[in-house]
Amino acid sequence: MAGGGAVSSSNGKVYPGKLTTRVVVACIVAAMGGMIFGYDLGVSGGVTSMDSFLEQFFPSVYQKQKADDSTNQYCKFDSQILTTFTSSLYVAALFSSLFAASWVTRRLGRKLSMLVGGALFCAGALINGLAQNIAMLIVGRILLGFGIGFGNQAVPLYLSEMAPSKYRGALNFCFQLSITLGILIANLVNYWFAQIEGGWGWRLSLGGAIVPALFMIVGSLFLPETPNSLIEMGKQDQAKAELLKIRGVDNVDEEFEDLVAASEASKKVEHPWRNLLQRKYRPQLVMAILIPFFQQITGINVIMFYAPVLFRTIGFGSSASLTSAVITGLVNVIATFVAIYAVDKFGRKALFYEGGIQMIICQIIVAILIGKEFGTSGDSDNLSKGYAIAIVAFICIYVAGFAWSWGPLGWLVQSEIFPLEIRSAAQSITVSVNMFFTFVIAQLFLMMLCRMKFGLFVFFAFFVVVMIVFVHYLLPETKGIPIEDMAMVWKSHAFWKRFVDDDVDNEKPKKCSP
Ligand code: BGC
Questions:
Q1: β-strands 14-16, 6-8: how paired?
Q2: How far is the CA of 378 from the centre of ligand 1 (A)?
Q3: I need a labelling partner for 404 at 20 to 30 A (CA). Which of 129, 334, 377, 424 fits?
Q4: Which CATH class is domain 17-62+81-224+278-498?
Q5: pLDDT by residue (tens digit) across 253-285?
Q6: Are 397 and 334 in contact, with CB atoms under 8 Å apart?
Q7: Over the stretch 147-196, which tens digit does the pLDDT of each residue have?
Q8: What is the pLDDT of residues 295-327, one digit of tens each?
Q9: CA-atom Rg of the chain in angstroms
């Protein structure tokens, strides 16, 4: 489905289709879901490093942080209630994804899920912006979390189902790109609002999440539903009409028939959750759990949540910390563009390897730099300028490595490997595992930094080594393979083929070479 032509599926079939404006616009609007997620990821770290916010809600952390000499640098921000502010959102996201979003997405469509997500976001952002006490802060974060559960469930599926297979990788990256843009906007907003006289700028930072939420609400009212979802809901005629518009050609019969066949097969499945536990879905189940786990254990959210706090810990002033967070946020966005270009050219595995190695090297160098300066006691005179620049530079290279590998691929790969009959359930496992480990990192990082000190970066580097081995032996390459043909990649995989018997290809019984 090239820009103006057709692409042959790996089994020799040709589905005609173009990259229509409809697809592109729909994807941009849908990707707003990613923007909100990113904004919420990025906003809390900056806010928790603002003195006025700390003083009002977390006075003990504020005191500890001011008492420069008596406290070990590594432990300045170590407070469980402070991290609960950041992490509560992710627990809520986990629950909404597990118990509500999957059902709504499957039964009522991707669009409605996005709409519900947007509405919850608005409510959460409003309560946070107006917060008078910690309870309001946390309730607001929980509502945002519910919204994220819905958005992250529906948006990646929506993008994968709308995109022609040749562009699926690149379009799916819109989601990741919008996450990174959301983080960057949050960093910039924090930087500006921190300077507002009177110290109430954090209210604007937290309340600002309302803007992308409104976009998502309005957008989801006008977006077309995906053909897959319409077929799932029994609206075949509408689904075909939509497919014709999306692909921009006169004849979509073949692709349509395959989608209907896939949906028929999936309807026979009464219990998608129980189904997922069947032996033949073991590869998908393992990927649904391990990929998001690995994505989080790269330690990326240490930077995304706590960059300003981390930079303050190692001696930067408040404004320098927020500036550095803006720099890492910018690198994150730019590197994601590299990924968009590279993902369908070099394939998923090549990016996983390159990005992983880059991250390991940087994590070790950052550990050495921080270790040399602060040792284990956490004492340091003023950090020299050269040192500070070197640390920020290596953190940026690390972020770039993540942004063109595990960042986008940590969502993309799963969205393409789940067959329709388990897609919604498996996607909600992915979102939940992601949220669970995001929560763990958010909650434990400041405590781990206090205990493990610079060794924390080596800890994360170790896991990146493990994940490279995992990708090498267990992950098949999925570049350019239509979703409907994906079952075949497991059949021809050295390890996974033993789990997949010959009649498992519910969606389309045919041969293809991955
Ligand atoms: C991850 C987030 C992370 C972000 C950074 C996403 O793919 O899921 O946890 O903060 O990338 O860009």
A1: antiparallel
A2: 29
A3: 424
A4: mainly alpha
A5: 888 888 888 788 777 766 777 888 989 999 999
A6: no
A7: 988 888 788 778 878 877 677 766 777 778 889 999 999 999 999 999 99
A8: 999 999 888 877 877 777 777 777 778 888 899
A9: 23
Structure tokens at 94: 């986990």
CA of 41 to the centre of ligand 1 (A): 8
Instruction: Determine which residue's CA is closest to atom 10 belonging to ligand 1.
Output: 301
Q: Which residue has the tokens 């919850």?
A: 120
Count CB neighbours of 270 within 10 A: 7
Q: What is the structure's pLDDT at 250?
A: 87
Task: Specify the residue with its C-alpha closest to ligand 1, atom 1.
Answer: 407
Residue 420's nearest CA partner among 263, 207, 274 is: 263
Question: CB under 6 Å to ligand 1: residues?
Answer: 41, 176, 179-180, 183, 295, 300-301, 304, 332, 407, 410-411, 434, 438
Residue nearest atom 6 in ligand 1 by C-alpha distance: 407
CA distance 425 to 139: 27
User: Distance, CA 502 to ligand 1 centroid (Å)?
Assistant: 37
How many Å lie between the centroid of ligand 1 and the Cα of residue 300? 7
User: If you take atom 12 of ligand 1, which residue's CA is the nearest one?
Assistant: 180
User: Looking at 198-207, 250-259, 277-286, 394-403, which range is the least confident one?
Assistant: 250-259
DSSP string, 104-172: HHHHT-HHHHHHHHHHHHHHHHHHHHT--SHHHHHHHHHHHHHHHHHHHHHHHHHHHHHS-HHHHHHHH
* Cβ 424 vs Cβ 285: under 8 Å: no
φ, ψ dihedrals at 476, nearest 5°: -80, 155
Query: Taking Cα atoms as reference points, which of 403, 424, 406 lies closest to residue 158?
Result: 424
Distance between CA atoms of 34 and 282, rounded to whole angstroms? 28
Q: For residue 28, with 0-12 CB atoms within 10 Å meaning exposed, 13-18 middle and 19 or more buried, which class applies?
A: middle
Categorize the per-residue pLDDT at 23 as very low, low, confident or very high, splitting at 50, 70 and 90: confident
* pLDDT reported for residue 395: 94
Domain regions of the chain by residue span = 17-62+81-224+278-498, 225-268
Give the predicted TM-score (pTM) of the model: 0.83
- Considering only CA atoms, which residue is closest to atom 7 of ligand 1? 407
Between these two residues, 385 and 497, which has the higher pLDDT value? 497
